[in-house]
Amino acid sequence: MSKARVYTDVNVLRPKEYWDYEALTVQWGEQDNYEVVRKVGRGKYSEVFEGINVNNNEKCIIKILKPVKKKKIKREIKILQNLYGGPNIVKLLDIVRDQHSKTPSLIFEYVNNTDFKVLYPTLTDYDIRYYIYELLKALDYCHSQGIMHRDVKPHNVMIDHELRKLRLIDWGLAEFYHPGKEYNVRVASRYFKGPELLVDLQDYDYSLDMWSLGCMFAGMIFRKEPFFYGHDNHDQLVKIAKVDIHQKRTVCIPLGTYALDKFSFLSLVLGTDGLNVYLNKYRIELDPQLEALVGRHSRKPWTKFINADNQHLVSHEAIDFLDKLLRYDHQDRLTAREAMVSFPVLNFGGM
């Protein structure tokens, strides 16, 4: 059985009311207090609007939930209530429902977000380190409260760049961590799924979020979004095993003796040998079709991803940090707290 290295017994030690979301009684607010202004997004489980609180004219976000099991809605509400006021966690302000259709809506604080496809290509090395650190604060906090997010990706990280404010949003897939419990592997978005999900290891833990964070960080520093670009879940594991160097409109360039020497000590990337060690450790057998697809790929150095467009964002500290996040074995990955305190990539004195 696999158990989390940190915050293992948070929910064991807390009273049942803390994590028993099915017993939650929802306190409904007044829907008439809010008006929709414009649509800002949609997802599998909801439609999202910019709104206004008519009582104080303050902007808010209105998340109108699509028909799903009550249990799932209660889980999201309970988690948001438990995390309220935590660092960089989006604040749930109210819960309302339509009198006729009974459709529930969640009311959140407003964040003046810039779409990541527009924002990320403009970020400096300092900006990237700053925002990753802010995201780590949110992740360490939710993990310390016994909660896995399970859907960390750029779409769920709101950034108001002018105010340098970050919020981790969309807690619809989040879950309470109980050691030894087997969880659904159909969580997270494909490009950010940890290997544990792709090989059907169900007793995963908070470290799943750290893989997803690593994918985000890799995408940011290498300007390759998404970093692992699989066409389906099987292909996703193949892409991880061979670390595909598919980059549009960019050419890998020789960086000169100094630049390459700088990275010469760095470890290599993933590959199938590491995958097999992982599978053997946890006694996992791959589906024969998936095993054939994965085949055999040697490990590649991270330097393969450096090119003219991204070399100013890549340092050996950044690569070392990435290397400690993108590990097959979830127990070997940095925890959010370790990532915050241990690594110079997050030390803002320069890279």
From TrEMBL:
Record-annotated Protein kinase domain positions: 34-346
Per its UniProt record, what PROSITE patterns does this chain match?
PROTEIN_KINASE_ATP (PS00107), PROTEIN_KINASE_DOM (PS50011), PROTEIN_KINASE_ST (PS00108)
Alphabetical UniProt keywords: ATP-binding, Kinase, Nucleotide-binding, Serine/threonine-protein kinase, Transferase
User: Listed GO molecular functions?
Assistant: ATP binding; protein serine kinase activity; protein serine/threonine kinase activity
Catalyzed reaction equations:
L-threonyl-[protein] + ATP = O-phospho-L-threonyl-[protein] + ADP + H(+); L-seryl-[protein] + ATP = O-phospho-L-seryl-[protein] + ADP + H(+)
Task: Tell me the Gene Ontology biological-process terms attached to this UniProt entry.
Answer: inflorescence development; photoperiodism
Looking up InterPro entries in the UniProt record yields: CK2_alpha (IPR045216), Kinase-like_dom_sf (IPR011009), Prot_kinase_dom (IPR000719), Protein_kinase_ATP_BS (IPR017441), Ser/Thr_kinase_AS (IPR008271)
Checking Pfam families in the record gives: Pkinase (PF00069)
What EC designation does it have?
Answer: 2.7.11.1
* Origin: domain of life: Eukaryota
Binding sites annotated in the UniProt record for ATP: K63
Task: Give the protein family.
Answer: Belongs to the protein kinase superfamily. Ser/Thr protein kinase family. CK2 subfamily.
User: What is the purpose of this protein?
Assistant: Casein kinases are operationally defined by their preferential utilization of acidic proteins as substrates.
What name goes with this protein? Casein kinase II subunit alpha
